[in-house]
Amino acid sequence: GRMLLDENGIPAGAVICMRDISDRKMTEAALRHSEEGFSKIFHNSPDMVAIINMEDGKYLEVNQKFLDVLEYTREEVLGHTTEELNLWAESKDLKEILLNDLIEKGEIHNVEFSLKTKSGKIVTMLLSNVIINLNNKTCRIVTCRDITKEKKMEAEMARLERLNLIGEMAAGIGHEVRNPMTTIKGFLQLLKEKKECSNYREYFDLMISELDRANSIISEFLFLAKNKAIDLEIKDLNEILKSLLPLIAASGLVTDKYTSMETQEIPELLLDEKEIRQLVLNLARNGLEAVPPGGIISIRTYAEADEVVLSVRDNGKGIEPQVLEKIGTPFFTTKENGIGLGLAVCYSIAARHKARIDIETGPEGTAFLVRFKKHA
């Protein structure tokens, strides 16, 4: 406003000027709401989000999901680069390619790559990048989706599909191979008893034992048959284990290896006894082979929540990660004379009993935990 004076300098009126600033207020409010909205989306996103300065590669801001997945605190990340934190688990070439691609196109979407967490765990990500101008700085907004679980699930689905395929094949070809073998074994036994063949008796014994070995392989192979009839009855798992203990202990003692058993009170389960015997023998045999002379395997049963757990633990040197991810795949083996069906059969038997097998492994040994649902 401004006063109007007459020629004598006496106030004669006033001019009042008013400016409508409601538009500016609305714009500021909208901007503030927008920033608050962006902040909420940024910090509460289920994906990892980071803002990185393009000039020096330093992190300007990261959200909580980023910190949770990569196991860092905000203070450890901000002001540092990916290289300083040793996050990048891929080749440097891939990083250069992605950066050049980003600079050229301004954005990249859904590129699969790996990062390393603070504890050294490798996680698989889907990466998206967009270049923006933020407070007069050229930055990139990095969005990463953790797909580690999905990748594991894909691998598991592929493994189960292979198991199904093998099972379907097993049922079809198992008997076709067995029949001619039975005929050959019969004639070998017949020839072995003839006088004129007495000089070659040890050769006949060797051929017959090799046929028996092939036959036992086919027997294990047939356990993988998808639609195998299963005879479930209410059984005491502890009684099955106690009947097997002398056999397991004796096979271990031959190579100076020992077996202990501890059974707790557990409810009876719906089991196919023949299959459970095979499951236990396979796991025990694997455990005995994993330990050096003087080593021990311990077989335990116990109840846990709504499950009954059968544990077969050895004190060997543990299973390497690259072996662990392939374990249970038919024909995958680390044994010199193995055929890679033992654990595949175990997984197949567990699936037919609606049980699951968990593996705990480390430098002090390995435990296979078969978890059965309690019978209602």
How are the elements arranged and paired?
Elements: E1 2-5, E2 11-15, H1 22-44, E3 48-53, E4 59-62, H2 64-70, H3 74-77, H4 82-85, H5 92-105, E5 107-116, E6 122-134, E7 137-146, H6 148-192, H7 201-222, E8 233-235, H8 237-253, E9 258-263, E10 269-271, H9 273-290, E11 296-304, E12 307-314, H10 321-324, H11 342-352, E13 356-362, E14 365-373
Parallel strand pairs: 9-11
Antiparallel strand pairs: 1-2, 3-4, 3-7, 5-6, 6-7, 8-10, 11-12, 12-14, 13-14
Helix pairs in contact: 6-7, 8-9, 9-11
C-alpha geometry: elongated
H-E order: EEHEEHHHHEEEHHEHEEHEEHHEE
Query: What percent of the residues sit in helical stretches (DSSP H or I)?
Result: 40-55%
- Helix count equals 11
Question: What is the number of beta strands?
Answer: 14
How would you explain this protein's 3D organization?
45% of the residues lie in helices and 26% in strands. The protein has helices at 22-44, 64-70, 74-77, 82-85, 92-105, 148-192, 201-222, 237-253, 273-290, 321-324, 342-352, and strands at residues 2-5, 11-15, 48-53, 59-62, 107-116, 122-134, 137-146, 233-235, 258-263, 269-271, 296-304, 307-314, 356-362, 365-373. The strands form four sheets. It has a five-stranded antiparallel β-sheet, with helices on both faces. Strand 13 (356-362) and strand 14 (365-373) form a beta hairpin. Helix 6 runs antiparallel to helix 7 (201-222), helix 8 (237-253) runs parallel beside helix 9 and helix 9 (273-290) packs antiparallel against helix 11. The protein is elongated, with a radius of gyration of 35 Å. The N and C termini lie far apart (87 Å). 19% of the residues are buried.
